[in-house]
Amino acid sequence: MRTAHRTWLQEQEGRMLSRPKPGESEADLLHFQNQFLAARASPAVKIVKKADKRKGEDGSIDAERPPLQDSKDVVMLDGFPDNLPALTPAPPKKSKIKNACVHFEDEDLEDTLESHDQHITAVLSKIIERDTSAAAVTMPVPTGDPFPRSFHRSEIKSEVKVGSGRKSIFAQKMAAKRTAEKAATAPSAADCVQVRSAALDALDPEESAGETPLPSIRGDLTDKAGDFLTSQRPCLITGEGLGSQKSEQEAEAIHKENLEKLRSMSEEEILQEQARLLAQMDPSLVAFLKSQRGNNEGQKKELKMEQTRPEEFVESLPMGQHGVRSSLSMQELGLEESVRKEENKKVEITDDDLPVKPRKEWIHMDNVEFEKLEWMKDLPSPRQKKTKEGMQARFSLKGELIPADADLPTHLGLHHHGEEAERAGYSLQELFHLSRSQVTQQRTLALQVLGRIVQKARAGEFASSLKGSVLRLLLDAGFLFLLRFSLDDAVDNVMAASVGALRALLVSLDDEKYLDWTFSWYQGMATFPFVPNNEEEEDEEEEELNGTEKSQDKKLKDENKPDPDVARYDVVKGLLKTRIQHRLRYILEVVRPVPTVVLDILHILTHIARHSSEACSQLLDCPRLIEAIVREFLPTRWDPQVAEPGFLLTSLHGVACASAMKFIRVLASGGRNATARLLNKFEMKSRLSRFIAEDPLDLLLPREEAIRLSTEAFRFWAVAAGYGQACDLYSDLYPVLVRILQSLPELLSTCAGRSPMVELSVQRAAAVVTLLIHVTQTAGYTAELQAKLSSNSSEDSVQIPPPPVAWNQVSGLQPFLETSLKKILQEISHTETWQTLQPLTTACVIYLGVYYSACSQQPSVNPIDYLEELERLTSQVLQPLLSQPTIQSMWDLLRPCSALCNPLSCSPAPESVISISSLSCTGGKPPLSLVGSKSPFPFLTALLFLINNITDIHKGLTSKYSSVLGFRGLKDYLHQSWQTGPPSVTPSSAWILRHEYHLQYFVLALAQKMAGACPNYTQHASLHHCVAMALLSRLLPGSEHLAHKVLLDLAFNPEFLPEGKAGGPEAADFSDILHLGTSAKLAQPGSATAVFSKVTRGALLRESYQNLPSIRSCYLSHFVHLQPTLMHSQASYQGRNYLIQSMLLPEVKGPILPSDWPFFPLISLYNKVTNAETHGAVLNSLPLDLVNTVTWNLQWVLLLETWRAKTLQSIPTAAKLARLMCVFLTGCDLFLEAPIHRYTAGLLSVYCQPKALDSLNLDAPLPGLASFHDLYISLLEQFEGVSFGDPLFGVFVLLPLQKRFSVHLRLSVFGEHTNILRALGVPLQQFPVPLERYTSPPEDNLNLLRLYFRTLVTGALRHTWCPVLYVVAVAHVNSFIFSQESATQETDAARKSMLRKTWLLVDENLKKHLLYYRLLNAENPMGFDLYEQLPPMRLKYLQMVTQKENKENAPALDS
């Protein structure tokens, strides 16, 4: 069996051998093995030993051993590598049974242990030491760096890779290092000479002549080829792929052959071969070779830097070249040293630079490495960069700006390791970074410093030093929300710092001071809300909504906006969206911070309450906020130790606080409903009784705080009384009020010197008098309300209960205050005392005015009694007062203290931002300002208020006060104030201007009474009327009552237009005759209006003057939309406290009436027609009195333009012209009505005067008009449809076509609306504008010139149809075709073509006009003169263009 099997195997030799079968013995298997080996057949399976990662690439140290040939029976496979390539797609897996072995029964365990012995002796016995006799020993290379240079794994790519398989980064780095060491140490001295041969040849060709000559290679090969020819190692060939142990030698042999081949070639042959190779090779391969060349050069540079001892290199050179080599080495050494000095300029330090001198006896300091000690030396002195860009601002810990060149010591703690380490201080960016630190102290410090920076920025300390606004930069960077996030911090210090910074950002204590100062002024209790007037413009659809719908829609939009978007326009509204009131309540109630933080929170809440009525409602609705403030900071009892001198107050909780009372008072100003909630729900009535009934000296508080608390309590009561509330306390606290009034003389005796205590006491007394003013006003309407309540006529109206205070309860206080006023007036000559007492004096004078006004309305008071009292007051008090020199000097101070005459006094602060309302009082106002300490405005306003009330009640006393209007200081002030341009309305100016307008109104009201009572008043009438007209366009929201009174009594009063009676119309006619100007032309219009009577401007003025009552009623009816706000304003100014809804005035976005209000009826009618047409409706019938309305409007404007032209100077002439165009755009043939036509022509004559035409600018944006071009297009369309060739309408169409205005207007006429040229027949004799304004300078728009020429040639523009534009077109075309100035090719070709076409014209007349036009002539019926014969220059140019050579054939003018 076995024999047969062997025979079969032999037969199948060379074929696949069979596998062993089951049952065969071990001897059979060995026989199979021998047979398999003898056949040299390929095995079907190969056993691969997997590498162990822990033992390196080869798996074990045994892999490095040479194979033992006869020791074991090993299967060897030819054609396969010893190690399989790594499978990169999948990492190798570890076998879990790697150490498992197969054991046989007869296996000798001792032999197995012996073969696998891993003992140290067995390992060491197999170690064979490597021969290092030929290896070069290199010392570590010293460098100038303090630490070894780090490398990135990306650098490994350029290193030489030795061996195959995967190696660690360290192993690859070490292999590359060995390769570099071999390359550095292998060359001998002669080889070094060869390396440097290229450089030496460049330095001394003669010296290197003994060397092997090399061709001089230039161009791109100069450096690269030279280096290649002298290099010892190949750049690209490494020999790794040869697979033999002598691969490197083979590569070097190939490299030497290449060098010899190159040396035998000339430069031209090298370049030709290079070009041939580059043409044949793949560009990507060329790029790869160049990159390898670059890597090799980088390695050479590194090797070169390691040559740190040029002396050794020089010694190894041959003696014959030693001199040149040494000189070269010194030059190279100097170059390298200079480069190193440049690079290491900052790190070169000496022993003297160190603050601590190193000593040799110190351990490890025998060799001092100064580079590592650089951090110890002093910082360099800061230097200011001389660049156009500013340097980064840095601040100290106190928030002060540190100059860029300030050299501050380091012990101040202002230096750090950030940018610009030599400069002291912190930038805003660094402070922001610190504010989000994990370290509590850093967050606290950053917020504190930011708060101080904001406070100093608001004071304007950085305005002259920094470029831009610090506050605006901080807010744009998110400072507001940084503070809001910090408020939520759990650390008390961070919370306190954020509260302080937020208070610095929002609150200005000086603003609050001046608001408190003006509280006792006339209408000083009412203030404008702190709402920024920079809200986004509302859509046109929103403008059609009424006030309630608009406010609701606006509120809904704000709720849907993100918090940052809301805060960008309104900081307070943005904070309320973040529910800041709830967080502040938590801090006050739960955290219970120190007194400083409590006061800051109360200031913040006060500022929020001043924002708007909505903000007050949100504060009132905040759960437990008001309860906590009232309970903790307005208690009825507290620790008496607080009042002890020197007592350190560690907590403000449980102690009465004036700031809390002020917050409640400001909150009450938000509305009568808020006041009712405070008085009833939050028990403020009991607090009022507690703090008012007790004298400040008896309150267990520091004296100054006690006076402030009492003052704020009286102010809060005054606000409540301003709504007619809390008057039931009057009877309860009447004895207290009487006691205070009785103590006023004692207060006067202590006012000799100004001290904080005296000023606080005067403020408190003024607050008491202000309270009595509002209680008196409330009591004055008690009888009226009682009568309405008892009558049956008020069944349909709202029933208003009368207040719980009657007139007889308040009338008894007047003697106390009048007596006090007389004593105060005796101190008027003492300037310092008078200034101290001025708030009290002002309040007393206002009280007398309110008292007598209310007294005259009481049915229970005998009129004779109060009239006699008024006569006594006039003769004994007021007339002597007006004769005082001090009063005369006060009138003289009006102009220096006026905000109108000095607009800069109320300009916004440098650091004001639009999203935070501020009064810009930071730092205080100067004494000579409207709210300054020397301002006469509060007292004089109160005095004029009293005088007006007296003259209203007692008409016979009017003449007694005629001297008031005669004061020179008052007249100078009025004259200057109305001529000044309209001031910009900002939060910082509105509150001041409102008080100044009060004084002007009372002056005008007194003047209105004087006009009918004093015959010599006429001399002041014109001045007062100008002031009234200016005041009408300046009065702010909340003063609608004053605007209504000025319109009703002053603006249209014939007494204030004395020109109507004193020859004004005749003077206008005489002026027209003297000027012989444009008005004479337009006063006699022709064409469709020829049937109308010829009237002069004087006749128009006379008729207008007679129609003043009708004009007044027309304007009053058109301002009916102001009726709701007028009712609120009247309630405030008339003292009807039961109708007042809020002490916050309407939001200020501008004056009540626009500056162009004289045109308002005309604009209103135009808008009505336009809106109807926009919605698709057609107005077939206009109001019945439309003609009268437009006529009265035109009459009033004509009066003002003739006799009060300066009052309309704030309206641009273009705006006036645009408003006048509404006459033609309203209705179809409205302008053809006789009176409208006459007055429109009269106004046009005014606007066509030379000065008016010079000021006309149609290209500038016009107020109230989106686009003048669109308006003009509408005018053209209207002219095409309904003009009937009217010359007046035509003049309005022609006016905007002047050359200096936009070319688009002329293109519209000559391009899109050429049909109007047939009807635009304004005669040259009736055209009021000089034609030079249309023809000069020459037209340069090529498209328009082509349109001119086309309309002339086609006959669309003829002299008989449109003489004005015909003259204009002829003048411009003539100037263009004969122009010989240098121009573009297109322009030159166009004018030559136009000249040829003109020469070939069939229309001889037009041809003659275009060629022979000379200049304009108003006397010529054609409007221009012609040349009799062309000038020689023009003739020559014409011949050249038309190719006429004979001069005789030139055209001549027929006689």
What is the topology?
Layout: H1 2-11, H2 26-39, H3 109-115, H4 120-124, H5 169-185, H6 189-195, H7 197-203, H8 221-230, H9 247-263, H10 267-280, H11 283-305, H12 310-315, H13 322-343, E1 394-395, E2 401-402, H14 428-435, H15 440-458, H16 470-476, H17 479-487, H18 492-506, H19 509-517, H20 540-543, H21 547-560, H22 563-569, H23 571-577, H24 580-591, H25 595-609, H26 613-621, H27 625-633, H28 658-668, H29 672-680, H30 684-693, H31 703-722, H32 728-732, H33 734-742, H34 744-749, H35 756-780, H36 782-790, H37 807-810, H38 814-825, H39 831-855, H40 863-882, H41 885-892, H42 894-897, H43 937-953, H44 968-979, H45 987-1013, H46 1018-1032, H47 1040-1051, H48 1064-1075, H49 1078-1082, H50 1097-1106, H51 1108-1118, H52 1123-1133, H53 1160-1174, H54 1186-1203, H55 1213-1225, H56 1234-1247, H57 1250-1255, H58 1268-1282, H59 1287-1294, H60 1303-1312, H61 1332-1335, H62 1342-1354, H63 1363-1377, H64 1385-1399, H65 1404-1412, E3 1413-1416, E4 1424-1426, H66 1432-1442
Antiparallel strand pairs: 1-2, 3-4
Helix pairs in contact: 14-15, 15-18, 17-18, 18-25, 22-23, 24-27, 25-28, 28-31, 30-31, 31-35, 35-39, 38-39, 39-43, 41-44, 43-45, 44-46, 45-46, 45-47, 46-47, 47-52, 48-50, 50-54, 51-54, 53-55, 54-56, 55-56, 55-58, 58-60, 60-62, 62-63, 63-65
End-to-end Cα distance, whole Å, is 152 Å
Write out the strand line-up for the largest beta sheet, numbering strands in chain order: 1-2
Q: What ranges have pLDDT less than 50 throughout 5 or more consecutive residues? A: 1-15, 55-73, 92-100, 157-164, 187-226, 300-347, 536-546, 1082-1093, 1444-1455
* Arithmetic mean pLDDT: 81
Tell me the fraction of residues in β-strands, as a range: under 5%
User: Considering DSSP H and I runs of 4 or more, what fraction of the residues is helical?
Assistant: 40-55%
Rg over CA atoms, rounded to whole Å, is 52 Å
Number of helices: 66
How many distinct beta strands? Answer: 4
Structural class by SSE content = mainly alpha
